[in-house]
Amino acid sequence: MRNAGFSIVELLIASAVTMAVVGAVLAAVNPAQLMFRAQGDAADLHQRSRAAADMLGADVRAAVAVRPYRVGATRDDAALGIYYRTDTLTVLGVPSAALSLDADASRTYYLKNGTAPGTFQLMQYDGGLSDLPMLEHVVRLSFDYFGPATTDGRLVRLEPATLVDGPWIEDAAHRMFDADLVRVREVRALLRLESTDPWLRRLVPDTEIVLHMAMRNISPVP
Amino acid sequence: MALLTALTAVLLMLAISGSIALNAMTEITIAANHRDALQTLYGAEAGIDLSIMRLRRTIDWSGVAPDPGGTVLVQGRLVDLVQVAGLAPRLNVTAWVVPDPNGDPDVLMVQAVASGGGGLHRGVQVTIRRAPAAPGATTRNIETILWRER
Cβ distance A109 to A68 under 8 Å? Predict the structure, then answer.
């Protein structure tokens, strides 16, 4: 009687079947693992959107005035003759920090090239010496300004050309600015954020948020 | 062998789907907290607006804020105060008015605090001034001098 055992052919066939089964299982698990990573990345994207909305919203609500360019002690745009940038917003007359009682600080938000090529950081400039990165992987940022129409008082978008054509007036800090900026009652910000991981971008699409922020400190109560 | 492989695969998928579900639930909670915080802020602003509406109907402001520490003008559930359906039922608002520290009878400081679910509190403080009465006008315009979140 022949001893029980497997021939080499049987072992090879068994190994091939096992490998096929394990391969099929791994093929099923791998997308699930990718989905797991994408879930965390999507949550991060949403959190960055919320942070942007909170930060910009609180500052525009509290602002006494806005400028569509950088204002401050270093690299002041007006000193270079620049009075409009699509991706730059300065809020004036805001508290220097959350819950502080003063209201004479300014903050500028703008885009700067990020660490990854083709991406940007949302930066915050405090009007003095500090430029700090606030959000990573911002693909796009633009600001639009709205003020009452001269005819019926409805809020209309103020064209960029009207914000740089004068007449010019001087503020308390002896800086000249376009008189049409006094009409600004609402700022609209458009932000586009992308996933931090390039491999996950087909699973986590870019998020675009539009914020309509009304300035409370200059709106008269009707 | 096949059974072992199938069991391992099922367990792995279960672990991954469990983690995804946990992540999703955490994200939903964070988003709900953010929404509640915004609702609470707007609730406080509604308290300010309700107060200003009442002040607009008040001809003499000298008796509006007898207490230098603050006199309550509006208090209650926001849904009851504004009688609008669809508002968060747990949103409570208190607004009070404080006289001008400099004694200007046409200037008042209105503060409102809204509290929502989960212990959220947001406050808004507004200083308002009444414009001089125009000849023949029955009401006087009110303008915001200062608006602050607290």
Answer: no
